[in-house]
Amino acid sequence: MRILFSFFAVIALVLSAYAGVKIANLQFLFGVVIPYIAIAIFILGFIYRVLKWGSSPVPFRIPTTCGQQKSLPWIKQNRIENPSSISGVIIRMALEVLLFRSLFRNLKTQLKEGKLVYGEAKWLWLAGLAFHWSFLIIFVRHFRLFLQNTPSFIKMIEGLDSFLQLGVPVLYMTDVVLLGSVTYLFLRRVFIPQVNYISLAADYFPLFLILGIGTSGVLMRYFYKVHIVSVKELVIGLASLHPVIPQGIGVLFYIHLFLISTLLVYFPLSKLMHMGGVFLSPTRNMVNNSRMVRHINPWNYPVHVHTYEEYENNFRGKMKKAGIPVEKE
Amino acid sequence: MAKKFTAKPDELSKVDYKPPKKGWMDTPAEFKEHTFCWGAKGKNLDAVNFPNARDWSPAEEDWKLPENWQEIFLEGIRERLGKYRSFKLFMDICVRCGACADKCHFFIGGGDPKNMPVLRAELLRSIYRKYFTASGKMLGKIAGARELTLDVLKEIWYYYYQCTECRRCSVFCPYGIDQAEITMVGRELTNLLGLNTDWIAGPVANCYIKGNHIGLEPHTITNSVEFFLDDIETITGIRIKPTFNRKGAEILFVTPSGDLFADPGTYTAMGYLMLFHELGLDYTWSTYASEGGNFGLFTSNEMAKRLNTKIYAEAKRLGVKWIIGGECGHMWRVINQYMDTWNGPADFLEEPVSPITGTKFENAKSTKMVHIAEFTADLIKNGKLKLDPSRNDRLKVTWHDSCNTARGMGILDEPRYVLRNVCNHFYEMPEDTIREKTFCCGSGAGLNASENMDLRMRGGFPRANAVKYVRDNYGVNMLANICAIDRVALKTLMEYWVPDVMVTGLHELVGNALVMTGEKKRTQDLRLEPLPEKEAKE
Amino acid sequence: MKLNSLLADKKDAILEKWFDVIIESYPPDTSNFLKNQSNRFANPAGSAISQGIENIFDELLRGLNQENTLQFLDNIVRIRAVQDFTPSQALSFIFPLKRIIREELTVEIAGNQLLDEILALESKIDDLALSAFDIYMKCREKIYEIKANEVKSMTFRLLQMANLINDTEGHEPDFKGNNKLKIKRGEVKK
Questions:
Q1: What pLDDT, in 10s, does the model give residues B327-339?
Q2: Phi and psi dihedrals of B371, rounded to 5?
Q3: Which residues of chain A make contact with B99, given a CB cutoff of 8 A?
Q4: Where are chain B's structural domains?
Q5: Distance in angstroms (rounded) separating the CA atoms of residues A217 and C118
Q6: pLDDT at C190
Q7: How does pLDDT run across C140-157, given as a tens digit for each residue?
Q8: What single DSSP character describes residue A31?
């Protein structure tokens, strides 16, 4: 039900782009208007969400410490997993964001009855990492469409990405990796009961959407070629705020573009915001130094307490009998 | 509501009995006997002016909620979304990857899917989505949102009092989502409706009025300590004379009151007394600030602060220079991560310097409170203690890292250093079950009552299993730790799972090994049991 | 002893089926976790079950050494005694072994006239179930004993303190002579 709903939602998106362009000839709507709206929603939405998180204070210093604290000078501190300085936090965050350190923790290769045993967790880490990195590389590669002259670093990335030199046009490894890893991430949601049990439609939808984007892209590049010069013309037009709709771009491109637009709109509304959120997570981005430097809670307020005076008034007789000094005789 | 034997006759013969596969949202919580604590008594809630103070029972249909309980609950969520970035973020960014699913000791030992941290969080997230997000309002269940009904409230209550706030899930989460943080908020919300357990509310009320969880009045504190002094005299021939509420002492000593009350914590308390006496430390106990632990933390941020205030207030009144804190788990999460923020700055105290070694405790220069394991490790490193570790030779010791000190502070190697110096046989448990990956005792965060014993036993099973491993492989017979709740809870846990393993605090072992000036030839350990090598010699 | 060698041959298949049946008594989300996570420390319950049934099966073939069998049964039953099972469910895992063996050996039983041996084996399995029942009861009794002990030691401390309150009010407290308390304290500890 959750899966089917998401699946058909994406199919409906594909069909509407197809019908819009092929039948209703709404190239301008799908090629210009919707992408502009989507980008605007994405940027504003993203900023809004981050600002909204930022507007809630961090009242307490609550890093999850995953190693030895800074203590006596001769005790070796784990400066990264239990940072007491900003540089430690930066490394910790970098490991987290770039290499998915915490998911990696899950991974434990071990010798069991003479053979190596890998947990499922390793695959989650690997697929997650493969997915995010290939997505990023593909995203960067697309910049060639935005610029008249392709910058050298993009050429370099392309070169590395296609170093296997398979097929014509040459196969980008990231295309394969992206589709493979997304498929894996989808399948584990279906087949691992625990993960299936916790998965919502909101988990399947972005997977199908990205699968749709990847598939349409791959089809365009390797199978049903679209007119690349026209595509570039359209994209540069968009980027330079002088939109044009060149003739003869295949409908596949509009489907691709529409799915991307949908992703951009969906992004700030959804869990995909973990991209921004990971940087704000107080259990990871804070220094564990609250015994060294006082952390201020902006909404700290005075509370009712049971004072010593009240306490002594309650127990003065008993205290005196027990020989405990008192303030008032 | 609580069910005793839930199988219907026709299910008994069906060994392939499998519950119908329904979504978790459509499966209301079933209150199983021995898994939840009794409801808070009205008088205990009243003592600290908590709302909706009345006697109630989770097992009954009627929870005696206020008329507008939904409004209160939702307003509570709104307020906390604005106050805690952690809470807001953790409501939003979970991708449900499932990495945390099998990291919770309650899930591992019991198998209830709602004990997967991600799902425990989703119980509350579904409410958040319904009332605070556009997609949840529009799409409802498709977006993972659901109405706040009485059943849902009960479900949240049931599972949020099955979380020990141990933070193990947070270690494995790619975004650091910490279920402890969410549980704390969830428990605050239930407290707005007067839905606490008596095992928490009782100690809170006690601590507020009498200064400690157990409810020891001033004269009973001194009397308890007198008992220890008698035993110490029997063992060492030395009569120790500690002071209470003494103005002008250099150091205030604060430890969980459990150490004064329940074995084997009491032996740890004897260890403190012996150590401080031997050092000639100018220190005092306090009967007003006689609790290091803080059950307020399992109730609400405000309550925790109200209880914690006493430590600094008393330090100020007595005019001490700094504070030493005893062995306790959640106490140190509070001191490390909350105390200074709540009740500081402690500018009336001085930066802690060990009067024995001259070591400056740089890492405590603002809070001015030093962990006793840090203090003792420094003493040993500087050769200030005469130790005879062979007195602990009949013990094969393993070390349990307590959740709060491991994942909310990071005090891992100081106690190990002390341990290696006071006993000769020390064996680590398997790597995945110690340090930041340590398994909870299953009874933390106010769950160490008797009525929920099944829950405690299965929650503690992963820990017990690792202990069993070192017992079987190395003959370990003693489980050491620096947590008062552990000392009580693990003792029970071992009785069920690994009956021949005993439990001890770190400073009990220190007390045994400590060679004191002018002591008689020791023939007994702190438990008044004969020392092994003496027997051999005789 | 034809049966034994047949069983030894089919051991893997039988154990696998038996394990599956036991695991299926848990919710599906749980059962998969119990099945697939092989780390003994990350999945203590699952590994205790799989190890336990193998040992029990071996003992069955060897002829049930009372002490070993009880230990192996204990490893499984002790866990199930504190999980969300009714007593009958907690022990239900033993009986399917009969069915599984019959299923696995359908052909052999028909062809080799193993009926007597099968019957003997099945009554051994019945004995297992009875032993498991004893263990289950011991576990539950232990739980109640532990509960009682917690309350007892708490009450004892309170009484101890209460006594002293009376003492201080009346006359000089007699700490030294309080040997009775010390003896009691030892009792409570154990």
A1: 999 999 999 999 9
A2: -75, 140
A3: 102-103, 106, 121, 124
A4: 21-196, 203-537
A5: 64
A6: 32
A7: 999 999 988 888 777 766
A8: I
pLDDT more than 90, % of chain B = 85
pLDDT level of residue B8 (50, 70, 90 thresholds): low
Give residue A187's pLDDT band: very low, low, confident or very high (50, 70, 90).
very high
DSSP 8-state class, residue B519:
P
**CB neighbours of B279 closer than 8 A, spacing ≥ 6?**
B356, B379, B384
Residue whose entry in the numeric block shows the structure tokens 């507020």: B208
Distances (CA, A) of B2 to B26, B35, B59, B60, B123: 19, 10, 5, 8, 21
Interface contact flag, C39 A192, Cβ < 8 Å: no
What's the distance, Cα to Cα, between the start and end of chain C in Å? 48
Please, where in chain A does CATH 1.20.950.20 lie? Answer: 2-298
**CA distance linking residue C127 with residue C121, whole number of Å:** 10
The ipTM (two decimal places) reads 0.91
Task: For B64-74, write each residue's pLDDT tens digit.
Answer: 999 999 999 99
- What residue has token string 């010069």? A229
Contact (Cβ atoms closer than 8 angstroms) between residue B146 and residue B140: yes
Confidence of residue B399 (pLDDT cuts 50, 70, 90): very high
Give chains near C: 3+ CB pairs under 8 A: A, B
The pTM assigned to this predicted structure is 0.90
Give C117's Cβ-side CA count (13 Å radius).
Answer: 19
Going from the C-alpha of A297 to that of each of A56, A171, A293, B85, the distances in angstroms are: 11, 54, 13, 12
Q: Does domain A2-298 have CATH number 3.40.50.1000?
A: no
CA atoms within 13 A on the CB side of A96: 29
The secondary structure element, H or E, covering residue B203 is helix B198-210
Q: Which residue among C28, C37, C39 sits closest to A193, beta carbon to beta carbon?
A: C28
**Are the Cβ atoms of A62 and B305 closer than 8 angstroms?**
no
